[in-house]
Every structure is written in structure tokens, then in C-alpha cells.
Amino acid sequence: MMREPGVNVAGHTAATAYPFISGPDLGAFGPPVGTNLDGGGTFCVDPWELYRANLISGMSMLLFGTVGTGKSTLAKCWCTRLVQFGKKLAVASDLKGEWTEVVQQLGGVVIQIGTGLPTRLNPLEEGVRPSVDSMGNQLTDEGWSQMVRTRRMSIMETVIKILTGQEELTSDEHTALDDAIDRATTRAESEKRTPTVVDISWALTEGRDDTITDEELARASRSLAKTIRRLHSGDLGGMFDGESTVTFDPSLPAVSIDTSSMRSSTQKARRVASACCGTWIEAMVTNPDAGQRVVVYEEGWDSVTNRADLQRMVENWKLARDYGIFNILIMHKVTDLNMAGDSGSQMAAMAQSLLADADIKVIYRQDPAALRATTSQLELNDKERAQLPLLQKGTGLWRIGQKTFRIRNTRTTPEAELFDTDQKLRTTKSVDEVSMIEDEHGQLITDWAA
């Protein structure tokens, strides 16, 4: 009996010669993102379904890509389609104003914050009370009060650290702030309203117990009061120094905070605004009763350079699963995480924990200079490393758990017009630049734009 000898070929060659062989696939759960260029057909992703299938264990994603590679378009396309699949969207601080039209098209609300604008957000708001705690037990009044107090202490510490450049508060400062929050809360509750930063300033000065003779504590109180004063009498005045002028409607499909009017403000002012807006949004959406929600953090490189902001983000990411939230942090390159601090420092460790906790990593084209660090920190294999500098605009590597997919994001015509971040730089746009997803998916994701 004659036997024909086999032919040894690489997997890529075999797939080309025998096209019925394709790469890995996630199935058809969730909205379509685009086309799997390794033969998997339409690529669909729903992070909650991935978690149920044990393909990921953390509900967060890091999205990397140099300017002009299409990473922002991917975020907008995917988030928009997730909303059409019943999820909700929140953009914590949109410094460029790129999400405003997107949120409005989805029927959501855009909150605009900036110098001279009438809108005010109170970062000390209680937020939306969940029915259960992080352990799944019924939330008691005492437990809720403690959650609110912890959140208020956290945002005030964050603001103070940003404004002073301190890594940690001194013991006297911590004690003074702790006491001031309690006094401010008691004062506000007696007047049947929510405490504000003005109440805390009052508690640190006029409302301080005169029987306290500890001069170090008194000095710390005066110093904190001077720092916090910037929120209600300085360049940040009118934004976060009173009760909120807007209310959060958890039933709306999308909400964003547009801080684009602050682009000319100082870096510290922008960071304070980002922290206050992020805290306000998180207080409203960290509620498992409100359904599944995507929370987007733009300009992620700015968040990791401040210890207080970074620490708050790390803590919130670890609780995302309990609150039904999926976080997306958008950055230019992996080495942006190194801006957190020197190797071996606590800040560097916190930044790396964000990377470790993100079970979904999407990498768009990287500059050659960043390639080595990207390969090392993301543990890319030789094939993935060779593909990165060659990826065309709109194409990225999706790392989901232990699987890698090469995906071309595809857009509808309305999406291409709405998500075009370069439209101010050009007057015409070639139809050839738009990858038409309607041909593959019909009206599945286009109804929202009708």
C-alpha cells in the first residue's frame, strides 16, 4: 500500500493553502468590533460574557496607540455598540470634548465644567446608594454612611496632594482633615443639605474646636484651609465649591463630563478637575443595581503621574467587578506607565498593577523607540512584535487572557463622520478611508444613528 509523504509547513502557510483553517475565535457574543484578519471572521466582544466564560478575571482594559492610529475611534465605536447591546456609558473627564457628540447621539447627557461656566459639581455628594455592599450583603445605614465618609476623605486627600505635591499627608494633617469632614457633615445635615468644600474650609478654621490646644494640629488645620481655598476662591472657584447644579439620571444610556474649556488651565487645575469629575461620576455609577456600565478614562498618561489619582484608580479598578463596571484606560504607549515613578517605587508598582489587572489589552501601532518596552512589559512573542510597527490605521492586536487577535476596526458611514477626530484639520474625506461594516453586519449597529 502506497503512502504519500506529508509536507511540513508553517501554520500560516497551511492556513493560506487551505483557507478553511482559521485562527482562534470568541464566538458571536456581544457587539461586532471588526474583522479578524487571521481568518476568524467577524470579531465580537462583550467583556461581561468573557468574564462569565472565564476568559478574563478582571473587568478592565488598557488601550495603547500612538497619535493617528485609530485608538480613539475604536473606543467610541465599541462603546457605542455596547450601549446598543444594553450597556451604559460614562466618560469621566473628556478634556478634548471628543465624546460630546457621541453621547448626545446616544441620547445621553453631557455635563460641561470649566472656568466661567454655570455648571457646578459637588465632589462630596453621597452618590447613588446601592442595595448591597461589596460582599453581596444588604447595605445598612451604618455601612452606607461609612462608604460615603470614606469617599469624601479620599477625594479631599487626593485634591490636597495634587495641589501641594505631597505624596502623603502628615499625621496632623490627616487628623485635622478627618475631624473637619465630620464637622462639615454635621453642619450640613443640620441644615438638611449636602456638605461642600466650603463647609470643610469652615470646619478647618472657624468651626474648629477652640479647646484643642495642640499647636501642631492647629497649624495643620490652617495650612489645609489655605490649600482648599483654591477650590472656592482661586482659579477653580465656581466648579466644585457648592452643591451640584445637575443631577445624575441612572436610567440614561450615557453621560460624559466635558472639561475641554480647561485645556488652557494649569496642569494642577486640570488634575484637580479630573479627580473631582472622576469621583463624582464614580459615586453615581458604582451601583450594581443600575446595570452594566463602561467607564472611559481618556488621557490616561496624565492620571498615572499623580500618586493620589493613581491610587484612587487602582482601588476603583479592583472593585469594578462588584459594581458591574468595565473600565477602559486610553494611553499612547506602554512606557507611559513608567511616568508613574522610578523602577522599584510604590507608584511604579501601582502603575504595573493596572497593567496586571487589565485582562484585555489592545495595542495599536507603536513607534520603533517604544517597541522594546512594549514587547517586554506585555510579553509579546516574536510574531506579535514583528506585526506591531506594521499595523495599519484602525488595526490593532487584542490580547484577551492568553489569546491574541489581529483585528481591523470597521465603521459605518455615520460613525466615520461622527468619530473623525481630524475633521477640523481637513475639509474633505475620501470614502475609501471608511471601512464599511454594513456590508458584513447589516443594520445591527447602525440603528442608533438613525
CATH arch. level architecture of the largest domain: 3-Layer(aba) Sandwich
Tally of helical runs: 18
Class derived from helix and strand content: alpha/beta
Mean pLDDT: 81
Main sheet strand line-up: 2-1-11-10-9-3-8-7-4-6-5
Order of helices and strands: HEEHEHEHEHHHHHEHEHHHEHEHHEEHH
- Strand share of the residues? 5-15%
Name the quaternary structure. single chain
The CATH superfamily name of the largest domain is P-loop containing nucleotide triphosphate hydrolases
Cα gyration radius (Å) = 24 Å
Q: What's the helical proportion of residues? A: 40-55%
Q: Quick one: CATH class of the largest domain?
A: Alpha Beta
Count of DSSP strands: 11
Q: Can you tell me the CATH topology of the largest domain? A: Rossmann fold
Report the uncertain regions: 424-450
Structural description of this entry:
This protein has 18 helices and 11 strands. By secondary structure, the chain is α/β, with parallel strands linked by helices. The protein has 2 domains: 22-87 and 293-450, Rossmann fold, CATH 3.40.50.300; 110-255 and 264-291, no CATH class. It has an 11-stranded mixed β-sheet. The radius of gyration is 24 Å and the shape is elongated. The N and C termini lie far apart (66 Å).
Keywords:
450 residues; alpha/beta; Rossmann fold; 2 domains; 11-stranded mixed beta sheet; 18 helices; 11 strands
